[in-house]
Amino acid sequence: MRNVPRVLFLCTGNSCRSQMAEAWTRALHGTRIEAASAGVDPGASIDPRALRVMREAGVDVTGQRPKHVHAIADPPFDLVVTVCDQAREACPVLSGAGRVVHRAFDDPPRLAATATTEDEALAPYRRVRDEIRALVEALPELLDGER
After folding, report:
1. Looking at residue 12, which CATH number applies to its domain?
2. Is residue 1 part of a domain?
3. From the candidates 84, 87, 94, 142, which is the catalytic residue?
4. 84 is catalytic
5. Range of the domain at 104
6. 68 phi and psi, to 5 degrees?
7. Which residue is catalytic, options 11, 16, 21, 136?
8. Helix or strand or coil: residue 25?
9. 18-44 burial by CB neighbour count: b if 16+ within 10 A, else e?
């Protein structure tokens, strides 16, 4: 019997925001919350800038990889958090899933596309990384049903 709540972070490509959320959950909550991430249309690899800004924060993401939501749907999740609007719209019905909540975060790769320097490109990644950390810090309350 499972005693640890399971949380799924769902995004479109599972290469940036949802990967950050999964890594933050492991870093901040250890074995008290089991985290996974997936995408409705996953990419081939994790965004290198996401890896970089998470490493700056002392969180290692290198062992993670993008996955399709259908590849990780079992066993059921207590909480599914969609972290982008497109994933919210395309969120599949997951058998036995608990609550689904939506917390949209800006898309760092899209915001960085017009940057003229690497520091300028990393700024939205750092901001979104920190916003996702705040969400993950509040996971115990979300799991208890508070909004």
Report:
1. 3.40.50.2300
2. no
3. 84
4. yes
5. 6-142
6. -80, 145
7. 11
8. helix
9. bbbbbbbbbbebeeebbbbbbbbebee
Pair of tokens at residue 99:
């609550």
Query: pLDDT digit string (tens) for 8-58?
Result: 999 989 999 999 999 999 999 999 999 999 998 899 999 999 999 999 999
Predicted confidence (pLDDT) per residue in 93-147, tens digit: 555 567 888 899 999 999 999 999 999 999 999 999 999 999 999 999 999 874 4
Calpha distance 50→115 (Å, rounded): 16
Rounded to two decimals, what is the model's pTM?
A: 0.91
Provide the sign of the torsion angle of the four alpha carbons 80, 86, 89, 91, taken in this order.
negative
Q: Residue 29: inside a domain, yes or no?
A: yes
- Catalytic residue status for 16: no
Question: How many domains, in total, are found in the chain?
Answer: 1
Tell me which amino acid residue 145 is.
Answer: G
- Angle of CA points 111, 35, 103, to nearest 5°: 40
Whose tokens are 């979104």? That residue is: 128
